[in-house]
Design brief:
Largest sheet of chain A: 3 strands, antiparallel
Distance between the termini of chain B: 62 Å
Largest interface: A-B, 47 and 44 residues
Low-confidence stretches of chain B: none
Number of strands of chain B: 7
Order of helices and strands of chain B: HHHHEEHHEEHEEE
Number of strands of chain A: 6
Helix content of chain B: 25-40%
Radius of gyration of chain B: 28 Å
Radius of gyration of chain A: 27 Å
CATH class of the largest domain in chain B: Alpha Beta
Strand content of chain B: 25-35%
Mean pLDDT of chain B: 87
Largest sheet of chain B: 4 strands, antiparallel
Helix content of chain A: 40-55%
Oligomer: heterodimer
Low-confidence stretches of chain A: none
Chain lengths: ~140, ~170
């Protein structure tokens, strides 16, 4: 009786251990998937495209001597997360005057660009507002 | 090694069927996320609409057609603040016509950009341009008399942004 009891305990321990490993492996798999979905959701690529298009449309919808302001908190946050230095933050939004192109680069890998069709001289600058919120000011001038 | 001595448990962990189920579920989720993230924010219609509106605002003032528009040397780009280089590229198109009540053209139509848009604008499809048509009844004043004429503007955009652009 004693022998059988020991055997049965050992078997039970093994089953518990194996079941635990099985559950842990499944949880690891689910965790990896969740991390992938979460990190994809806040990807810099989507924000680069979205900001570039918003800025181009804003410029095309404006008139000379206008100054526009666009909240860019999330963009600055992502750029800082991706290792862009604070002194280089103004470079995340650039203008290619030759091609009338807005370039938004939050990762330092080239970014996303979109053309505006208005023949304006455009200046951009990122400024801090109240509660350290970041705004992109876009100054439109006649060429 | 102890784990694999128990055949039933070993089957549970290494079961090909279970790996297959995980691969299908995981692959499906990864594929779904990648498709969702690779989708473009399509603003081509907004682009074309803004272009058409900009031209209307430039050519019509208080319901009257800009008299300079009827001159042969009228430069739509400088007058309306449009970039000739950008419009003349293959991603934009504008076509402006002015016709009187009898349907007669009052000036040579102005067009610029990708000529194929004249047809492509009316085709539905992911790769075809998105276009905007504006028709305005405007007052045309000539030699003391005035009449209502029609200003027709077709503007199209097929602009897709670029990734990895380098500032020149």
């Amino acid at each position: 009786m004693k022998k059988r009891g020991l055997l049965s305990d050992k078997k039970a321990d093994t089953v518990v251990l194996e079941t635990t490993i099985f559950i842990i492996l499944n949880l690891v798999f689910i965790a990896i998937l969740l991390i992938f979905v979460w990190s994809s959701g806040k990807g810099a690529f989507n924000y680069e495209e979205s900001y570039a298009k918003q800025i181009a449309l804003l410029i095309d919808n404006s008139k000379p001597e206008m100054t526009l302001s666009l909240g860019i908190n999330k963009g600055v946050e992502i750029a800082e997360e991706k290792g862009i230095k604070k002194e280089d933050i103004n470079k995340i939004v650039r203008i290619d005057e030759k091609e009338n192109r807005i370039i938004v680069d939050l990762t330092g890998k080239g970014g996303y660009s979109y053309q505006y069709f208005s023949d304006y001289f455009v200046e951009t600058e990122i400024i801090s507002g109240a509660r350290d919120e970041k705004y992109l000011t876009i100054k439109i001038k006649e060429k | 090694m102890g784990i694999f001595k128990n055949k039933k448990a070993a089957e549970k962990i290494l079961s090909i069927w279970w790996i297959f189920v995980l691969a299908i579920a995981g692959g499906g989720i990864v594929l779904g996320v990648l498709i969702y993230n690779s989708a473009e924010f399509d603003v081509r219609y907004d682009d074309s609409n803004l272009l058409a509106e900009k031209i209307v605002n430039c050519l019509v003032e208080q319901g009257k057609i800009n008299p300079d528009f009827l001159k042969e040397d009228f430069d739509i780009f400088s007058e309306c603040g449009l970039s000739k280089e950008v419009i003349d590229s293959d991603v934009f198109y504008i076509n402006i016509t002015l016709i009187d009540s009898s349907g007669e053209v009052l000036r040579e139509p102005i067009y610029s950009g990708a000529k194929s848009f004249q047809v492509d604008c009316f085709i539905n499809g992911k790769h075809y341009p998105r276009c905007s048509i504006k028709q305005e009844d405007v007052l045309y004043v000539k030699e003391g008399s005035s009449e209502i004429v029609k200003l027709k503007i077709l503007a199209g955009s097929n602009q897709h942004g670029k990734r990895g652009a380098v500032l020149k």
